[in-house]
Amino acid sequence: MSKMILILVVGAFITYGIVNITSNDNVTNATENAADNYSLTKARNIANSTAEMILANLGDNINWRVTSPVTVNVLGGETIYKVEDAFFNGDSLIKISILGNYFNNLKTVTIYTLRNLKSPGFLPVNMYAPVTTNNNILTAGTITVDGRDHTMAGALIPNKGTWGIWTTKTFTQKGASSIGGTFYTAGVGTDIAPTKVGYMPVVAQNQTYPGGFPTTPEEVLGGISNGFDKDRLKIIAQRGIYGSQYVTDPTNLKYPLKGITYVEITDSMMDCSVEATGAGILIVHNKSLTASIKNINAGTFRGLIIADDIVHIQTTIIGAIFSLTPSPSEGNAIGLGNGSVLYSNEAIKEATEFAATHNFGWRKKRVAIKYWFE
Amino acid sequence: MQYWLDIVGSFLIGGLILLILVNLNLSMSNSAAENLNTNLSQGNLTTTTYVIEHDIYKIGYRVTGEKIVIADSAELKFYTDIDNNGTKDSIHYYLGDPSQMFFTFNPNDRLLYRVMNNEKPTSSIIVVDFNLSYYDSTGAIIDYTSLKNASVRGKVKTVTVSMGVESADPVEGEYQGAEWKKNIIAKNL
């Protein structure tokens, strides 16, 4: 009997030992599998992080090349990369080759980019003038509205501009306010410097907006057909992309403005500054088209202002302004003081760059990626 | 009398030891089976994720025009030059029906098909869950209904894949499994 028990005990321990070893093997395999997966992910992260750094460098200097492989340590691993000119798929491109290595787990990434920096900014198809309105409009005081083209810095670019005023109703000039712009004959532009008289060639009255006058900021930028579906700009602002802001109380805005600033209010953003860094889009809007921006009396804004109602511009705006309401809250006067609105293709393009649909990353605006293979 | 007490006592103690050992072995066997199943599930899952990541990261590579042609909750078809040979390929992922897996105990397992170009559908991927979500450039989710429209599919920038695998057979009524979820930013979209 005791022998039988002894045999059983020994047999059981042998079985236990075998099962235990098998079980340990399984655990070891699972751990190795997890570690391999982690290492491969890490190698991918190393390669992609290197790609981001290289693209940032190219964004600063598109002529930067690294024709001999360079090894650098990134994220606890190692990466080897080259940046060279290449002809691929019928195009002359820049080829970026990256090999990420994390404990001998390798990941390769090959990227082809265009050789010139490219901005995705655009001029909205129906952006006709530095001041576009859906109501009767009046300028007074010493405001200057100049549809001639300007640089971001406000320097004049001759004979490349547009109307000074564009409205679906009528325009009235009062006081010392002056209007300028560019009119075209057989495709050749002629500038009219801001003037109190003789501005009619650059003022477009009683116009019809193609497809109906916009009632949302997205429609100003081309609407759904241009990739701006309902509330797209609001979503970008709410997500804070490129420093964008969304507020329902204008006093909460942080200056200088960046990216898309979306102010959704039921009344007025009053006595305000529009100081902006770079260029952006300032939107003051609600669904009833009753949000207004009033007494803009500080800061220089470069970009695009889209507001339901714009009253009293007393500062400098380089770019364009677009008013949505057909029923302005305080008559039709957009300017009473010494403000100026200078049309600028460059500022508008820079502004819409923030709203354009990017693949990812800030530098994608500058380095145009053609192919990415990993 | 003493002799019989020794016999009975030995039987009792021997029986108890035997029961303990049998119980220990059963527990160990179950534990080993669970470990094995979990290990297999995890292995299957990582292998599958390699394939899925390999494909989805390349959506739209060297493709002009429409890049994603079907984008649904458990189905994705897209174009890419997967082998980098200059020829556009189509990759189609979709789920089979649970009834196809009649030979396993697990009622939830299904085949995940990967079809390249016009090849005959084949699959070695068995999953219990395969779900896809789509996001635009702002990170906003795009609903499946609107993804039937090609222009909306053109806005997809990120694909989130979540997947679960389980063992074919249960151990003590439980199926051992593993899950995986990843946001994949397809760089060519």
List the helices and strands and how they pair.
The complex is a heterodimer of chains A (374) and B (189).
Chain A: H1 2-60, E1 66-74, E2 77-88, E3 91-102, E4 105-117, E5 131-133, E6 137-139, E7 144-146, E8 149-150, E9 156-157, E10 165-167, E11 171-173, E12 178-185, E13 188-195, E14 203-204, H2 217-220, H3 232-239, E15 245-247, E16 257-263, E17 268-273, E18 276-284, E19 292-298, E20 300-307, E21 309-313, E22 316-323, E23 329-335, E24 340-343, H4 345-355, E25 367-373
Parallel strand pairs in A: 5-10, 5-22, 6-11, 6-23, 7-12, 7-24, 10-14, 15-16, 16-18, 17-19, 18-20, 19-21, 20-22, 22-24
Antiparallel strand pairs in A: 1-2, 2-3, 3-4, 4-25, 8-9, 12-13
Chain B: H1 2-56, E1 68-72, E2 75-80, E3 89-95, E4 110-116, E5 122-127, E6 129-135, E7 141-142, H2 150-153, E8 158-166, E9 177-185
Antiparallel strand pairs in B: 1-2, 2-3, 3-4, 4-5, 6-7, 6-8, 8-9
Describe this structure in words.
The complex is a heterodimer of chains A (374) and B (189). Helix content of chain A is 22%, strand content 41%. Chain B has one domain. Chain B has a 5-stranded antiparallel beta sheet, covered by helices on one side. The radius of gyration of chain B is 25 Å and the shape is elongated. The termini of chain B are far apart. Chains A and B meet through helix 1, helix 3 and strand 25 of A and helix 1 of B.
